[in-house]
Write a sequence for this structure.
């Protein structure tokens, strides 16, 4: 009974995560269209996570974070916080410069980066089925890039950087959760707080002067409302994502993340109505198919206990 309840909980969390992530991406795209300052939007999201988490901890009686040793903080948590900042910033740049559907198709290369990191860090070789799936992903992204009507080199580079950093961030976040026993929401708040504090000088240097003379297209009231909504949605979807990550294996999380990416692509195409020629849609579908094939191949190789509903 407890296993069934856990499976239902994970399923509900996944559906919530997909809906919140889709809404967050659409609102983020609108916010960046009105207010084209990606580092500022990133800071709003990180500070929102810190601010909104505090009352949530009291409301749900979340246990306190353990006292991290100074060396562990400097060696593990600070690099993770910096990675979180740049992952968020590159994600914002990608959806600002290119359609959300294309940005998330490119970010489907996360398994490619995961395989490359596993090879570089641990000398791990991938079986033939995994290599075939990685080729499918690469081919799908190549087709989508070649046929994208609103292609932008900066948007492509930002999406690739976000995918690479996301792979590294998930790998080490799971390790921190396992090694320290810290509650996943406490870790989320700690990383967001450290990231915003560490990168605040860089943000002011990069966008401070431009912000003083900024005039959002729809006025400051509309821009402020979009930024507030974007910050709240980003926090909620991060809470949902960390809640899933804390309950499943990294492999099962990758499966859930693949389905989430497909949901975001579909939602953006339906809500924002970006023009996409048939060959472009075929490239997106091929990349997403490659991600599912990759997860299936890894699942067969690892054979973990099933935790996600089919």
């Amino acid at each position: 009974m407890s296993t069934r309840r856990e499976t239902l909980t994970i399923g509900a969390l996944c559906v919530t995560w997909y809906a919140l992530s889709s809404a967050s991406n659409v609102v983020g795209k609108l916010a960046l269209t009105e207010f084209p300052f990606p580092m500022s939007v990133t800071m709003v999201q990180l500070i929102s996570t810190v601010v909104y988490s505090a009352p949530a901890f009291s409301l749900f009686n979340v246990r306190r974070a353990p006292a991290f040793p100074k060396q562990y903080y400097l060696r593990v948590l600070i690099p993770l916080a910096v990675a979180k900042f740049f992952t968020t910033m590159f994600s914002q740049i990608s959806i600002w410069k290119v359609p959300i559907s294309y940005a998330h198709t490119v970010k489907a290369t996360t398994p490619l980066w995961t395989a490359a990191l596993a090879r570089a860090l641990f000398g791990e070789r991938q079986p033939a089925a995994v290599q075939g799936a990685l080729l499918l992903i690469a081919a799908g992204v190549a087709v989508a890039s070649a046929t994208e009507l609103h292609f932008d080199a900066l948007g492509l580079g930002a999406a690739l950087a976000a995918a690479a950093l996301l792979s590294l961030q998930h790998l080490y976040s799971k390790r921190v959760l396992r090694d320290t026993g810290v509650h996943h929401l406490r870790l989320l708040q700690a990383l967001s707080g450290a990231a915003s504090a560490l990168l605040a000088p860089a943000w002011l240097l990069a966008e401070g002067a431009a912000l003083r003379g900024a005039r959002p297209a729809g006025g400051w009231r509309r821009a402020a409302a979009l930024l507030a909504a974007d910050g709240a949605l980003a926090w909620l979807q991060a809470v949902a994502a960390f809640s899933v990550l804390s309950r499943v294996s990294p492999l099962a999380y990758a499966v859930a993340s693949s389905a989430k990416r497909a949901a975001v692509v579909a939602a953006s195409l339906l809500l924002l109505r970006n023009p996409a020629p048939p060959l472009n849609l075929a490239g997106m579908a091929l990349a997403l198919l490659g991600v599912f094939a990759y997860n299936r191949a890894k699942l067969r190789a690892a054979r973990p206990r099933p935790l996600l509903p089919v």
About this structure: Confidence is low (pLDDT under 50) at residues 304-310. The chain is about 85% helix and 0% strand. The CA atoms of residues 130 and 294 lie 5 Å apart. The first helix runs from residue 2 to 34.
